[in-house]
Amino acid sequence: MNFIMPHLPVLQVAIPLIAAPICVLFTFGGHRKVAWLFTLAVSWVCFLIAGALLSRVLLDTDISYAIGNWPPPFGIEYRVDPINAFVLLIISGISAIALPFARLSVEKEIETDRHILFYTSYLLCLTGLLGVTITGDAFNIFVFLEISSLSTYVLIATGVRQDRRALTAAYNYLILGTIGATFFVIGIGLLYMVTGTLNIADLAERLQPLSDNRVVHAGFAFIVIGMGLKLALFPMHVWLPNAYTYAPSLVTVFLAATSTKVSVYVLLRFLFTVFGPSYDFVNLTFEFVLLPLAIVAMFAGSITAIFQTNAKRLFAYSSVAQLGYMMLGVALSNIPGLMATILHIFNHALMKGALFMALGCVMYRLGTVSLGSMKGLGRSMPWTMGALILGGLSLIGVPGTVGFISKWHLILGTLEAGFWPIAILIVASSLLAVIYIWKIVEVAYLEKEINQEKTLKEAPISMLAPLWVLVILNFYFGIDADLTTWVARNVAETFLGGES
Amino acid sequence: MRHHLVLRVVSKMLIPFILLFGLYVQFHGDFGPGGGFQAGVIFAAAFILYALVFGDDQARKVVPDKALILLVPLGLLIYALTGFAGILLGGKFLDYDVLSSDPTHGQHLGILVIELGVGITVTAVMISIFRAYAGRTKAIDKEDW
User: Fold this and answer.
1) ipTM of the complex
2) Is A409 inside any structural domain?
C-alpha cells in the first residue's frame, strides 16, 4: 500500500485511461458482459482513489505529482487540493453508482454490436473528466477537455437507436463544443504569450504585475467565453437540451451530473486561482456579465422547462437554470456565495443523477419519456415515479433535501452582498420549479392510465437500487450537511483568501 | 481501376518506398524531425494509396478490419504500459530515467517505445477513418450510380 500511495494522483487518471484500450480487446469474442463488469470495476477503483485523495488533502496538505519526474513548472504537474479532490469524488462517485444501473439500460437502448465500444468511450470520457479536474497544467486541461468532449460526442450519438435526432444533437454539440474548446485554448495561448508558463500556480504568480496588459484581458475573455460554452451558461446553452434529450439514459445521467460541473470547476479555477477578484476586470466580469446572465438563465431555463412535453428535455432546461444558480454564486464572489456554488456542484449532481436515472427506468419500460405517455405511471411504477418526485422536491429546494442547502447558502450570499432583490428572484425561480415538477405529479398520479390492457411492470431491481441510493443521498446530505459544507467552506476560504 | 495501367505500376513501385520512409521518420524521429505521429500518417498513406488504386476490398485483404481493431488499442497500451513501467521500476509515471541503468539511455529508450506506440495507433486510426468513409459507398449498388 505504501508503494502505491504516492502515485495515487496519476493512477486516478491512468487507470481509466489504460482500461479503455483493454476494453476494446473484449470485442474479440464479443464479451459484452465482461466489458460492463470491467468498466464497473474500474469506476469503483477510481472512486476509492478519489476518496483516498480527498481524505488526504483535507486532513493533510495539497499533493503535487510531477509526471515523468520533470519538476513543475517545467513539466506537467498534477495538483490535488480540496476543491478538485471534491470534484474528483463527485465524478467517480456518480460513475460508480450509475454503472450498476447501466447494464440493462445499455442493453435496451444501444445496438448490440456497439456495446463494447460504448463502454470504451465511456471510460475515455471518465478519463477526460478526471484529468481536467486533477491536472495543474493549463494546456493539459485543454487536452483532457478534448478527450472527454470527443468521447461525449460519440456517446450522445449512440442514442441513435432510440431516436435518429441523436445524430444531429451530437453534431450540434460537436460544433459548439469545439468552438468552446478553441476559445479556451486561444485564451491559454495568449496567457502563455505574455507569461511563458502553462503551470497554473506559476501562471497566477506571473500574472500579478500584468493586470493592465491588453493581451491578458483578451486571454481572460477567451477563457470565460470558452468555458461558458462548455458549461452551457445562458445564452450559450443551445447545445444542451438536445444533447441530453437524445443521448442514451446512462449518458444523460453521467453528463448531467458531471460534465458541466467539471467546466464550472475549470472556470472557478481560472477566475479565482489564476486571476482572482483583486483584478478589476475580473470584478467587472462578475458584476456585469456573470450576474445578469446567471439571473436570466435561472428564469429562462425554468420557464422554458415548464412548456416542455418531453420529460428529459424538461430536466435539461432545468439544468440550464441550475447552472444559473451556480454562476450566481460565483458572481457574488463572497464566502457564502462561493460555498453555494461548490455545494450545488455536488448537490445538483445528486439530484440530476437521480432524476435522469428515474427517467432511464421509465425509458426501459416504456421506450419513451414524453409526458403524454407517462399518464398514470405512478400506479404501475410506484418506486420509479416516487424517486422522480422526491428528486423533484430536491430540485425545488424543499427543506430536508440537498437543494435546500445550496439555495440557503446562495440566499445568504446575496444578502451578504447586499443584493436582497436577487434573494427574492431566487425564491421566485424556485417557484417556477414547483410548476414543472407539479406537471409531472399531475401526469403520473392524477391522470388515468392510457394503456390499461397492457400491464406495465416496475423497473428491475438492478436499476432501482442505484436510483434509490441517489435519492437517499439527496436526503442524507440534505439533513446532515456538515461534511459538504465543511469542504465547501474550506474551499471558498482558500479561493477568497488571497484577496484581503 | 483495371485500365489505369500507369497508376497501378507507379503506385506498386512507390508503396514500398513510402513504407520505408515511414519507418525512417519513425525511428529517426529522436535525432531529426519526425516522430510517431508523422510516421503513422505516412505509413497509413501507403495503405490508403493501395486502397485507392486497387480497391477497398483488396485493401481489406491486406489489413483486415479485425487487425485494425487490435492495432488501435495496442499502440495506446504500449504508451500507457511504458508509463506504468516507470512506476514499477521505482520512478514516477512516464519517468524514462529508470528504464535503464543510464538515465540518458533510459530517456532514449522511453521516447523510442512510446513513439512506436503512437505510430501504431496513428497508422491504424488513419486507415480506419479512411475505411469508415470508403466503405459507405457499398450501400449503393454500382448500377444505381
Assistant:
1) 0.89
2) yes
